[in-house]
Amino acid sequence: MAITLADAAKNTTDAVDLTVIDEFRKSSAILDALTFDPAVSPAGGGATLTYAYTRHITERGAAFRAYNSEYTKADAKRERYSVDLNPLGGAFEVDRVLGNLGPAASNEVSYQIGQLIKATRAKFADSFVNGDEAVEANGFDGIDKAVTGTVTERTAVTSWADLSTEDGRHDALDELDEWLDSLDGTPSMILGSDKGIARIRSLARRAGYYDRSPNAFGQEVEAYRGIPLINPREKAGSAAPIIDTDGPTGVTSLYAVRFGLDGVHAVSTPGALVKTWLPDFTTAGAVKTGEVEMGPVGVVVKHTRSAGAFRVVVQTPTP
Length: 319
Fold this sequence. Notes:
- This is Phage capsid protein.
- It comes from Saccharopolyspora taberi.
- InterPro entries: GP7-like.
- The structure is a single chain.
- It contains 8 helices and 14 strands.
- By secondary structure, the chain is α+β, with helices and mostly antiparallel strands.
- A hairpin with a 5-residue loop joins strand 7 and strand 8.
- The radius of gyration is 22 Å and the shape is globular.
- The N and C termini lie far apart (53 Å).
């Protein structure tokens, strides 16, 4: 049965793992909303952590037929894909003298775990958007690669760099709505850069499509037509944004995804989604190791129309 991190938290008895899962949920709207299918069970000799699936890539049409004539032949198309599941996380070292200094909420162990959660969340979000197995062998292909060249990848004709005129704003909204409607259902969220989200916010406010409401953790979430607007922020260990704006062209990308087992979802193995190993200061040795790990995990796009990319100019190109 498919689960979310919220479901995983309910099935976790370890207090530390529960805290770590909650931190992943609070710090990542993607991880909080994503459905995990625990479908890969490496049992027996020679078993592999590979999930194979069929991606629907082309719709087919229908037509009326004249009497004494045949239908024009056409086929829906699908292709076989696979993703290898790999663990994601990291390890840290703490000296036993430093490990217990200060309050429990702010000591060195808590600090290192917090920073590792932040980095893991950022790495997952970066892979979710920009992942490419041809570049990073132990990762997975992201939605940008999956939708490139499909009907849900579109380039805006209207520039969003200057939306000072009413006609320009109407044209931008029309193109945005046409792109969103090209998906196979209402998106679960729209992902964008700071400039991309700012432009949608501006358009939505003027059109009456803007909304702010608290999520399960009391955090304010912006929405366009009821669709959450999410900025995945910076890459792990870097100040570079996950979704960037190209300086020479002024172009950024917006991504829309519909989560579900028939759309975009994650794949995992049965058992705990998130595991934590605290440093053991009860045994000999001055320096101890701690770890936080998610997975093994991968992300799949079952239907190319469950995700889309919108390339749009949001700032004046630099000369």
